[in-house]
Amino acid sequence: MYQRSSPRGDSPVSIIGAGIAGAWQALLFAQAGHAVTLYERGDADMTLSTSHWAGGMLAPWCEAETSEPVIVRLGIRALDLWRAHFPQTEFNGSLVVAHPRDRADFERFAKLTTGHARLDAQALGELEPALQGRFRDALFYAGEGHVEPRRVLAELHARIAAAGGAVKFDGAAKAEDLDGIVIDCRGLAARDTQKELRGVKGEMIVIETSEVELARPVRLIHPRWPLYVIPRGDGKFMLGATSIEAEDTGVSVRSALELLGAAYAVHPAFAEARIVEFGAGLRPAYPDHLPRIAIAKDRIAVNGLYRHGFLLAPALAELTLGYVKRGAIDNEVMRCA
To answer: Which of 29, 145, 204, 269 has the most beta carbons within 10 angstroms of its beta carbon?
Structure first.
């Protein structure tokens, strides 16, 4: 981290894109006393946003299995920001389980990650009674949490307004038409200026049942990708999430079978659950799968959050604010023109 000259610390701030990245930027800048306007091309339901289809897992230690250390570092910092700004966030931890055929992958996951305790079958059943007798052991990441993306997005927008910021839906703003500091958080829509971006599809299914209760997300080790079951309250669970190099927003039969099969593998009672929703979002990613804050004077682009949007957004917003206020630069994330 080093310092450099930055825009005026009291400049008005315009943020384009009201998904999780843009919303956290707007919240922190508004709370810091800036005149903030957040622009969103879609309506308040945010169905055009990748964030609408996200899992909302706050799991930096689990992400270490496939991610660079910077993701873990920023993710751990972001947990503190979630706790500070949203004290109602559920930090019940997360569980990783596997069936015998995937035992080698389970042990590999354990070696590549930290922050967990290994639970035997009895301890697992005591922690999560619905899983009693289902698995011989589990990895418990006690410090991790999760949010319900659609609920928390709406709350973020409300808090921005409460802090004095303006949220303008149904308006596709252009950076060149805006004064002051402009922060571009458009995700894939920013490919008009960031050609490296690509979309990575993540599919999800929401199911509903009164026969299973879980207090925390459960990841099931899978040969192609970890599949998870996330409690959403009121008997609903989100099943996710595939990671496919494709830019359509449909859910394939193969993915649906794998997601539903994962739920059944976690607990057979899910076979009787009601399917509520199918959907897919396109996560914006750079070739290295790492987030980036690109700075060109008073024009800042925050993008490439990939699978880690809800995890990283608070920490990236804090870095952007630190640059504007003090000229602080994080060399692992920020690039200056």
So the answer is: 29
